[in-house]
Write a structure and sequence with these properties.
73 residues; alpha+beta; two-stranded antiparallel sheet; 2 strands; single chain
């Protein structure tokens, strides 16, 4: 049960940070969190990991569905 609560809190924190970034940082802009050490930069990844399948969301969805069905069988 503790892991479920922790996971829910982490997902909520992740979504809150994403909302705040979209609301307060322009696309491509940066906000220094620790000046000279850590900046928060707003970028968008329209693909999967490391931008693979960029622009191919439909293909990625079909591949994911096929693998889910295959693993289910």
């Amino acid at each position: 049960m503790l892991y479920l609560i922790l996971a829910a809190l982490l997902v909520a924190l992740d979504q809150a940070v994403k909302f705040l970034v979209r609301a307060h940082i322009p696309l491509g802009g940066s906000l220094p969190v620790l000046p000279g050490v850590l900046d928060l930069t707003y970028v968008q990844n329209t693909g999967a990991a490391f931008s693979s399948f960029t622009g191919g969301a439909r293909l990625l969805s079909l591949l994911s569905l096929a693998m889910t069905v295959l693993l289910g069988v």
